[in-house]
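User: Thanks for the earlier help. One more: Pyruvate dehydrogenase subunit E1. Can you show the sequence and predicted structure together?

Assistant: Of course, both are below.
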Amino acid sequence: MIFVINCNLQRLDGPVRGNGKIIQELEGQFRGAGWNVLKLIWGSYWDPLLARDKDGMLKRLMMETVDGEYQACKAFGGAYTREHFFGKHPETKAMVASLSDEDIWRLNRGGHDPHKVYAAYHAAMHSAGMPTVILAKTVKGYGMGDAGESQNITHQQKKMDITAVRAFRDRFNIPIADDKVDEVPYYHPGPDSPEVQYLRARREALGGPLPSRRRKADHALTAPGLDALKQITQGTGEREISTTMAFVRGLNLLLRDKELGPRIVPIVADEARTFGMEGMFRQIGIYTPFGQKYRPQDADQLMYYREDQSGQVLQEGISEPGGM
């Protein structure tokens, strides 16, 4: 199992951990839970600088810089980053003396580097014995430039002006002519392009498109006739019953059908007893992957709380498990 968490350092109103490091925090949580953690932080443009970092000052600078500062570096550009990031130590300032402001601005995050992303996935796929999480450092609003890249108002940006659209086109080399930019057309490389062919090949290898619409099942299913629901269709005479009771009766009747019954999965949010569905606990059982390892308090009763590996009811609870 592989999780990928996009760590763009920002939430809706501001940085997630402006005075700290959200990636370090998540790393501790996942490592404590026994996961293999891969941190995808720096892109390839950082590699030459890291190779020259013989005294470890660049790594020290990276570790002491908090997320709020990293956000500002991407928001304000190369000159700002030279002064407020690399300029903190003489050693790191000297490392970028030969780089232009444009070069410094181009120093990328790992989550935006295809080569680094591939390397992370390769490592994750070849990790055995435990689940893996990839913590990918990215920039919120990547590609928007002055229109919203790495800014606190990024999530509120519903549209970009034409100047920003042109800058976006140029940045990502999207082949749309100048006289068409004002129309903001969708660009598609074509069905025979290498990119589309690759995507289709990978999707086929994974079993085809999802979601997919199927008109016929692999196995024919015979639905029960209306006679099976006679207890409901014949009415209740002068006695009134609630809509809920009628529904539960119908569900119980369908569960007794030998062909359809095993395919029905009632999903309950901790309200089975409220709606008179507790009879299903014993009839079809509550699904649990490990079986029932305790004797339920109501074990002596007819409709006791029966959990079973082959149970059909999904008992989701309300929010107690999510109380954290």
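User: Great, one quick takeaway?

Assistant: Residues 265-324 form one domain.
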